[in-house]
Amino acid sequence: MKSEQPTAALPDAPTNPVQARLEAPLSLRERKKLKTRQTVRREAYRLFAEQGYENTTLEQIAAAAEISPSTLFRYFATKEDLVLTDEYDPVITAALLDRPAGEPFLRSCREALIGLIRALLQHERQELLTRMRLVTEVPALRAGLFRAGNSPQELYLSVLTRRAGVEHPTYEMRVTAAAIGAATVEAVLQWAAQDGREDIADLVDRTFALLESGFAGV
Burial of 115 by CB count in 10 Å (0-12 exposed, 13-18 middle, 19+ buried)? Predict the structure, then answer.
């Protein structure tokens, strides 16, 4: 009887668990598009670091990523989108919906986000830090962070509504989502302002502890 050999992982299987979860529901074509977006963004951040955000053009980024400008524009309509958009919303949503149904929403967010952040830091710490530094340093990016479609408030409100099984969010849900969204944005901006010296996961944990305490002692 032959002994079974362990199955080797595919050569391109992602080692980042967040990336793996992101790719899992995608077709091969969609995974290729995802990786193109991520390659473009990495090249953009490299050029931003080398020559500054304002001095970097989309044409230069396209050349660095070895794609045509027209292809780049299919992925990113503006230079701001390279910094202000990402692919993680489905992963965050799934992580929140995986939490126990009866668990308080603040606790669900605290546990889910800290777990995702710790996983991302092992693989994408510098990219995350570069991104948030740009947001703190470039006025147009700071303003765009709260533009419709970019605000994390919308993600939290969507999850709250789905968890409750209702079609329209209540006022209480909107306030809760707004508070969590603003608080988590403040946490990552503080992390970037400190040049990443504080552990972002610990900072987010402190943020949710403050929210759960009802701002006692502030």
Answer: middle
Neighbours of 71 (CB within 10 A): 13
Give the DSSP letter string of 165-213: T-SS--HHHHHHHHHHHHHHHHHHHHHHHTTT-S-HHHHHHHHHHHHHT
CA–CA separation, 154 and 1 (whole Å) = 57
pLDDT (mean) for 79-83: 93
Answer for the pair 23, 14: CB distance below 8 angstroms, yes or no.
yes
pLDDT in the model for residue 147: 73
Collapsing DSSP to helix, strand or coil, 43 comes out as: helix
Q: What is the pLDDT of residues 139-172, one digit of tens each?
A: 989 888 877 566 789 999 999 999 999 999 999 9
| Inter-residue long-range contacts of 145-150, CB under 8 Å, 24+ positions, other chains counted | 145/84, 145/185, 147/84, 150/84, 150/85
Q: Residue 203: which of 218, 183, 217 has the closest Cα?
A: 183
Decide if 91 contacts 120 (C-beta within 8 A).
no
What structural domains does the chain harbor?
A: 26-84 (1.10.10.60), 88-213 (1.10.357.10)
Q: What's the predicted TM-score (pTM) here? A: 0.82
What is each CA distance from 13 to 129, 134, 210, in whole angstroms?
25, 30, 38
